[in-house]
Amino acid sequence: ATSKLANQLAVLLIDMGKFDEALPLLRNAVAGCRKRYGDFHPVTQTRIKNLALLLSKIGMHKEALSLQKESLAALAAVRKKLGDIHPSTLTSIQNMASLLSEMGKEEEALHLQKEVLAAQRETLGNKHPSTLTSINFLALLLSEIGRNEEAVSLQKEALAIRRETLGGMHPDTLTSIHNLGGLLLKIGKHEEALSLQIEALAAFRANFGDRHPSTLLSISNMSHLLLKTGKFEEALPLQEEVVTAQRETLGSKHPDTLNSIYVLAVLLSDMGRRFTALSL
């Protein structure tokens, strides 16, 4: 339990950018898992992956690479003991794929992630939540190396299944809508992306209310998309709504609020309202 709590707290600290505070907690989490489960257990390997990612992020590449080599050895041992399609093997493969991706080795990660997805389609079926998670991750990897059309195809598959099995309002469905919309925007399919963003925003407002961080992110995404398509007048009230809500909930000096104010100022300037922009 202590190891689990240390890991959870470390993840929160990483999200807050407090890497120095997170590092000793992750080290403790790894040590606790090694003692309780052993070096090759999927939980231990997940903790090792998290530690290696943080070490890589803060520039401690030598130690990160050492952990990567250990994870490769662990993966080989798990394959030998349990076989290639055992759930624990697939977890280990996915951990390695995630680690390789974060370290900039997308092609190696892609090969492993394809293996995971093929095995999960075979053993769990296309509609299993784990399969859908793997589809999303593979789509992300494909997008990172510029294979966007393949990524879009996978994201459309995941979204269709989640609409069917979970409904349009489920958080996982909304995640799929967001992922697909981002990809479509990236490849210039703005109108299709806009249609999805309208759907997502309506669902976020209905599910979480207007002031929830997820709703505000969705509003901001919608504003950005409208800006990309030159619809400044439609983007403006949405960006103003974001700024007002963040000032109210986060305060005027919060980084997210300041970023939103900057976006609003740029929008106003582009619309020829420079004096209003300067007053922000």
TrEMBL record:
Protein keywords: Repeat, TPR repeat
Domain of life: Eukaryota
Presence of keyword Cytoplasm: no
PANTHER family referenced in this protein's UniProt entry, alphabetically: NEPHROCYSTIN-3, TETRATRICOPEPTIDE REPEAT PROTEIN (AFU_ORTHOLOGUE AFUA_6G03870)
Name the record gives this protein: Kinesin light chain
